[in-house]
Amino acid sequence: MKEISFEKINGSGLKIGVVVARWNSAVTYPLRDACLQALKDAGVEKEHIFVQDVPGSYEVVYGAKHLIEQKHVDAVVAIGCLIKGATMHFEYIAEAVSQGIMKLNTETSVPVIFGVLTCLTEEQAISRSTGDNNHGYAWGQSAIEMASLKKS
Ligand code: DLZ
Protein backbone atom coordinates (compact mmCIF):
# COMPACT_ATOMS: atom_id res chain seq x y z
CA MET A 1 0.00 0.00 0.00
CA LYS A 2 1.21 3.50 -0.81
CA GLU A 3 1.39 5.82 2.17
CA ILE A 4 2.89 9.21 2.89
CA SER A 5 5.65 9.11 5.47
CA PHE A 6 6.22 12.07 7.77
CA GLU A 7 9.29 13.25 9.61
CA LYS A 8 8.70 14.74 13.03
CA ILE A 9 5.85 17.23 12.84
CA ASN A 10 4.94 19.74 15.51
CA GLY A 11 1.65 21.57 15.28
CA SER A 12 2.02 23.72 18.38
CA GLY A 13 1.27 27.37 17.55
CA LEU A 14 -0.11 26.60 14.09
CA LYS A 15 -3.64 27.59 13.08
CA ILE A 16 -5.33 24.95 10.96
CA GLY A 17 -8.68 25.12 9.14
CA VAL A 18 -10.73 22.07 8.26
CA VAL A 19 -13.59 22.51 5.80
CA VAL A 20 -15.96 19.55 5.46
CA ALA A 21 -18.69 18.78 2.93
CA ARG A 22 -21.87 17.30 4.40
CA TRP A 23 -22.69 15.47 1.14
CA ASN A 24 -21.71 11.82 1.75
CA SER A 25 -21.22 12.66 5.43
CA ALA A 26 -20.98 8.94 6.29
CA VAL A 27 -17.61 9.23 4.54
CA THR A 28 -16.58 12.85 5.13
CA TYR A 29 -17.21 12.92 8.88
CA PRO A 30 -14.90 9.96 9.63
CA LEU A 31 -12.30 11.65 7.39
CA ARG A 32 -12.75 14.87 9.38
CA ASP A 33 -12.46 13.03 12.69
CA ALA A 34 -9.22 11.30 11.66
CA CYS A 35 -7.85 14.63 10.47
CA LEU A 36 -8.71 16.26 13.80
CA GLN A 37 -7.04 13.37 15.63
CA ALA A 38 -3.85 13.93 13.64
CA LEU A 39 -3.90 17.63 14.54
CA LYS A 40 -4.39 16.79 18.21
CA ASP A 41 -1.65 14.14 18.17
CA ALA A 42 0.76 16.67 16.65
CA GLY A 43 0.04 19.22 19.37
CA VAL A 44 -2.19 21.72 17.58
CA GLU A 45 -4.05 23.62 20.32
CA LYS A 46 -7.85 23.19 20.34
CA GLU A 47 -8.41 26.94 20.01
CA HIS A 48 -6.23 26.95 16.87
CA ILE A 49 -8.45 24.50 14.98
CA PHE A 50 -11.30 25.96 12.89
CA VAL A 51 -13.87 23.53 11.50
CA GLN A 52 -16.32 24.74 8.86
CA ASP A 53 -19.13 22.60 7.42
CA VAL A 54 -20.35 23.28 3.87
CA PRO A 55 -23.15 21.61 1.87
CA GLY A 56 -21.14 19.70 -0.74
CA SER A 57 -17.70 19.26 -2.27
CA TYR A 58 -18.32 22.12 -4.68
CA GLU A 59 -18.47 24.48 -1.71
CA VAL A 60 -15.21 23.39 -0.03
CA VAL A 61 -13.23 25.88 -2.11
CA TYR A 62 -15.27 28.83 -0.85
CA GLY A 63 -15.17 27.40 2.68
CA ALA A 64 -11.37 27.16 2.53
CA LYS A 65 -11.09 30.73 1.22
CA HIS A 66 -13.34 31.92 4.03
CA LEU A 67 -11.12 30.29 6.68
CA ILE A 68 -8.02 31.79 5.08
CA GLU A 69 -9.49 35.29 5.01
CA GLN A 70 -11.48 35.33 8.25
CA LYS A 71 -9.49 33.07 10.59
CA HIS A 72 -6.01 33.67 9.13
CA VAL A 73 -5.15 29.98 9.27
CA ASP A 74 -1.71 28.64 8.31
CA ALA A 75 -3.15 25.72 6.31
CA VAL A 76 -6.52 24.25 5.39
CA VAL A 77 -7.66 20.70 4.82
CA ALA A 78 -10.56 20.63 2.33
CA ILE A 79 -12.58 17.45 2.81
CA GLY A 80 -15.25 16.08 0.48
CA CYS A 81 -16.32 12.87 -1.18
CA LEU A 82 -17.49 12.57 -4.76
CA ILE A 83 -18.97 9.29 -5.88
CA LYS A 84 -19.49 8.76 -9.59
CA GLY A 85 -23.14 8.53 -10.56
CA ALA A 86 -25.12 8.23 -13.75
CA THR A 87 -24.83 11.89 -14.75
CA MET A 88 -21.91 14.21 -15.52
CA HIS A 89 -22.10 15.89 -12.10
CA PHE A 90 -19.08 13.94 -10.81
CA GLU A 91 -16.81 15.08 -13.62
CA TYR A 92 -17.86 18.75 -13.42
CA ILE A 93 -17.58 18.99 -9.65
CA ALA A 94 -14.31 17.03 -9.44
CA GLU A 95 -12.73 19.26 -12.08
CA ALA A 96 -14.00 22.49 -10.49
CA VAL A 97 -12.92 21.52 -6.99
CA SER A 98 -9.46 20.31 -7.94
CA GLN A 99 -8.86 23.47 -9.99
CA GLY A 100 -10.29 25.63 -7.20
CA ILE A 101 -8.05 24.11 -4.56
CA MET A 102 -5.01 24.41 -6.80
CA LYS A 103 -5.88 28.07 -7.39
CA LEU A 104 -5.98 28.72 -3.65
CA ASN A 105 -2.55 27.09 -3.35
CA THR A 106 -1.04 29.23 -6.05
CA GLU A 107 -2.88 32.50 -5.46
CA THR A 108 -2.88 32.72 -1.66
CA SER A 109 0.09 32.12 0.61
CA VAL A 110 -1.83 29.40 2.44
CA PRO A 111 -1.46 25.72 1.58
CA VAL A 112 -4.73 23.87 1.03
CA ILE A 113 -4.64 20.09 1.30
CA PHE A 114 -6.67 18.17 -1.28
CA GLY A 115 -8.89 16.02 0.89
CA VAL A 116 -11.53 15.21 -1.68
CA LEU A 117 -12.07 11.55 -2.43
CA THR A 118 -13.12 10.91 -6.01
CA CYS A 119 -14.47 7.38 -6.06
CA LEU A 120 -16.13 5.17 -8.60
CA THR A 121 -18.09 3.27 -5.97
CA GLU A 122 -19.39 3.67 -2.43
CA GLU A 123 -17.20 0.73 -1.40
CA GLN A 124 -14.06 2.61 -2.48
CA ALA A 125 -15.17 5.65 -0.48
CA ILE A 126 -15.79 3.60 2.65
CA SER A 127 -12.48 1.78 2.30
CA ARG A 128 -10.60 5.11 2.13
CA SER A 129 -12.37 6.61 5.15
CA THR A 130 -12.26 3.81 7.70
CA GLY A 131 -9.73 1.94 9.85
CA ASP A 132 -6.03 2.11 9.04
CA ASN A 133 -6.84 3.28 5.50
CA ASN A 134 -8.65 6.44 6.67
CA HIS A 135 -6.91 9.12 4.60
CA GLY A 136 -8.00 11.93 6.92
CA TYR A 137 -5.14 11.31 9.34
CA ALA A 138 -2.44 11.83 6.69
CA TRP A 139 -4.26 14.94 5.44
CA GLY A 140 -4.02 16.41 8.94
CA GLN A 141 -0.31 15.59 9.07
CA SER A 142 0.15 17.09 5.60
CA ALA A 143 -1.50 20.32 6.74
CA ILE A 144 0.92 20.61 9.66
CA GLU A 145 3.94 19.95 7.48
CA MET A 146 2.82 22.55 4.93
CA ALA A 147 1.82 25.11 7.57
CA SER A 148 5.29 24.73 9.10
CA LEU A 149 6.83 25.23 5.66
CA LYS A 150 4.74 28.39 5.21
CA LYS A 151 6.04 29.78 8.48
CA SER A 152 9.66 28.80 7.90
C1 DLZ B 1 -24.98 17.68 -6.68
C2 DLZ B 1 -23.96 16.75 -6.11
C3 DLZ B 1 -23.80 15.44 -6.61
C4 DLZ B 1 -24.62 14.91 -7.72
N1 DLZ B 1 -22.90 14.60 -6.09
C5 DLZ B 1 -22.12 15.02 -5.07
C6 DLZ B 1 -21.15 14.16 -4.50
O1 DLZ B 1 -21.00 12.98 -4.87
N2 DLZ B 1 -20.39 14.64 -3.50
C7 DLZ B 1 -20.49 15.93 -3.03
O2 DLZ B 1 -19.75 16.33 -2.12
N3 DLZ B 1 -21.42 16.76 -3.56
C8 DLZ B 1 -22.23 16.34 -4.53
N4 DLZ B 1 -23.16 17.18 -5.06
C9 DLZ B 1 -23.38 18.52 -4.42
C10 DLZ B 1 -22.44 19.60 -4.92
O3 DLZ B 1 -21.13 19.44 -4.40
C11 DLZ B 1 -22.95 20.99 -4.44
O4 DLZ B 1 -23.12 20.99 -3.05
C12 DLZ B 1 -24.26 21.38 -5.10
O5 DLZ B 1 -24.19 21.26 -6.49
C13 DLZ B 1 -24.65 22.85 -4.74
O6 DLZ B 1 -23.66 23.75 -5.24
UniProtKB/TrEMBL annotation:
InterPro entries in UniProt: LS, LS/RS, LS/RS_sf
List of catalytic residues: 89
Single annotated GO MF: 6,7-dimethyl-8-ribityllumazine synthase activity
Substrates-to-products reaction catalysed: (2S)-2-hydroxy-3-oxobutyl phosphate + 5-amino-6-(D-ribitylamino)uracil = 6,7-dimethyl-8-(1-D-ribityl)lumazine + phosphate + 2 H2O + H(+)
E.C. number: 2.5.1.78
Residues that hold (2S)-2-hydroxy-3-oxobutyl phosphate according to the record: 86-87, 128
Keyword DNA damage: no
GO biological process: riboflavin biosynthetic process
CDD domains hit by this protein: Lumazine_synthase-I
Binding residues for 5-amino-6-(D-ribitylamino)uracil: 23, 57-59, 81-83, 114
Signal peptide region: none
UniProt cross-references to Pfam families, sorted A to Z: DMRL_synthase
Pathway, per record: Cofactor biosynthesis; riboflavin biosynthesis; riboflavin from 2-hydroxy-3-oxobutyl phosphate and 5-amino-6-(D-ribitylamino)uracil: step 1/2
Keyword Coiled coil: no
Coiled coil location: none
Keywords: Riboflavin biosynthesis, Transferase
An annotated GO cellular component: riboflavin synthase complex
Function: Catalyzes the formation of 6,7-dimethyl-8-ribityllumazine by condensation of 5-amino-6-(D-ribitylamino)uracil with 3,4-dihydroxy-2-butanone 4-phosphate. This is the penultimate step in the biosynthesis of riboflavin.
Family: Belongs to the DMRL synthase family.
Name the UniProt record assigns to this protein: 6,7-dimethyl-8-ribityllumazine synthase
Organism: Candidatus Magasanikbacteria bacterium CG_4_10_14_0_2_um_filter_41_31
This protein's encoding gene: ribH
